[in-house]
Amino acid sequence: MPDPRLAELSRWLPDLRLLTAPGDLEHYGRDWTRRWTPAPLAIALPANVDEVQTIVRWANERQVAIVPSGGRTGLSGGAVAAHGELVLSLERMSRVLDFDAVDRTLTVQAGIALQTVHEAAHCHGLIYPVDFAARGSCSIGGNIATNAGGIRVIRYGNTREWIAGMKVIAGNGELIELNRGLIKNSSGYDFRQLLIGSEGTLGIVVEATLKLTDPPPISQVMLLALPNMDALMQVFALFRTRLALQAFEFFTDQALQHVLAHGAQRAIDGDHPYYVVTEFDAVDERQQQMALAAFEHALEQGWVSDGVIAQSEAQAATLWRLREGITESLAPRRPYKNDVSVRISAVPAFLHEMQALLAREYPQIEVVWFGHIGDGNLHINVLRPEDLVEEAFIAQCEHVTRLLAATLQRHGGSISAEHGIGLVKRAYLESTRSVAEIALMQGVRKVFDPNGILNPGKLFATG
Which structural domain range is residue 384 located in? Predict the structure, then answer.
């Protein structure tokens, strides 16, 4: 029997596309965590801002919770609908709306894929510099909701640096235009920055005006093999001093083995415990020689065991695949993921303490980790053994995460660097934010979403 609430929504919006088939409910009701059984009420696919507003107003009147949905590539359960929520997918709102050559901005609908944004910027001789492996499926709205970072944060920063303005539907159904693309705007609170990283708990982003910039200089890509963990920061300090870095990514031998098994090509012979993929400006022979000299110095110091410099774009892509292919290669194992960050200066001490913690608490479990060493962000992937049932595995991982959160707290770090809090990490929020901060955050949420309909249960357990 059809739900009368959906029948009413259809009367309010006769042209709205609503999905209720079991396959659609399962597909749209979960993200990459795969830990919760999806059970949404239905999937709404609005085609424009007016339809989004009407859906939110209907949801307020009928007290139906809404889970905003983009590409659902998140890893923290932020897009999960497991308790009869209405999933509001923005995938039909995926157009480029405007390009301003003077302001160098691109205005897009929130459902547009990051890869499409890159292509649109390229057509105008510019780039949108935020980038990561899920570019083909993640959406700009989702990127904004989690303040996504990626592989080039060291040069360009996170998503929030590149949002000139937004249009947002608040929890009460009001359309709010934030900042209007202004470079300078000291007229009170910047709600734009407040909404970035709010995980859909304050409002639904429907449009974004993105800042564009010049393409980076000609670059080279280098793969380095390192003999030990301490060498990571020594090589980073050396390269950051001598070269204009665009990226500096590391991964372990365990991560490499998974990517090679997934079809990537080995680039350095032999087995090495750690690897770095780095990209740097190489406009002229002087910069190229500086890179070679930095590599030779690292080799002499024993910080590097081997290395290779890409000689073509194809080879550069092959080297980058060793890093970017890690998440995809691990996906079939449904890893339990930690996404943490500390100040760059705290990385060495934290790495040692983290390594000891993981070795002690996961003696029989494979742990694959990698990260953006240049911004202090580490990704820890715990792989469930086949003989360990899911419930016991999750319980053990949550025990270790509590210990990891305490370690992060001692080092002044964060339990979530770029994936958000969602359902997975909300129990550990106090390791990153004080009780007073959390109370203020909950108060802000009630102002934007007085009836608590937007993504309830995410970020906070209540409130």
Answer: 336-422
DSSP 8-state class, residue 450: T
450 located within any domain: no
Amino acid (one-letter) located at 172: N
pLDDT in tens, 105-130: 999 999 999 999 999 999 999 999 99
Dihedral sign of CA atoms 148, 89, 439, 179 in order: positive
Of 246, 179, 187, 186, nearest in space to 211 by CA: 179
Both structure tokens of 155: 């040069």
* 40 touches 84 (CB < 8 A): yes
Separation of alpha carbons 405 and 415, rounded Å = 6
**pLDDT at residue 352 tops 70:** yes
Paired tokens of 257: 């083995």
Helix H or strand E encompassing 124: none
CATH of the domain at 252: 3.30.70.2190
Task: Using the 3D structure, point to which of 327, 351, 375 is the last residue of a domain.
Answer: 327
Check whether residue 283 and residue 356 sit in a common domain.
no
- Same domain for 340 and 301, yes or no, is no
Instruction: Identify whether 396 is part of a domain.
Output: yes
d(CA 305, CA 373): 19
Give every strand in the sheet of 219-226, ordered side by side: 306-309, 219-226, 274-281, 245-252, 366-372, 377-383, 336-341
**For residue 403, what is the domain's CATH number?**
3.30.70.2740
DSSP string, 139-154: BHHHHHHHT--BTTHH
Contacts of 300 (CB under 8 A, 6+ apart): none
Q: Look at residues 207, 294, 306 and name the one whose alpha carbon lies nearest to residue 253.
A: 306
Q: Under 8 Å CB-to-CB from 330, ≥6 apart: which residues? A: 258, 368, 381, 383
What is the arithmetic mean of pLDDT over 381-385? 95
**Residue partners of 136: CB distance under 8 A and separation at least 6:** 113, 114, 115
Query: Model's pTM, two decimal places?
Result: 0.91
Domain co-membership, 275 together with 304: yes
How many domains are there within the chain? 4
CA distance 445 to 440: 9
Question: Would strands 86-89 and 42-45 be described as parallel, antiparallel, or unpaired?
Answer: parallel
The count of C-alpha atoms lying within 13 angstroms of the C-alpha of 104, restricted to the half-sphere facing its C-beta, is 12
Whichever domain contains 174, its CATH number is: 3.30.465.10
Nearest Cα to 458, choosing from 418, 417, 427, 414? 427
For residue 244, pLDDT over 80 is answered with: yes
Residue 22's φ and ψ, nearest 5 degrees, are -55, -40
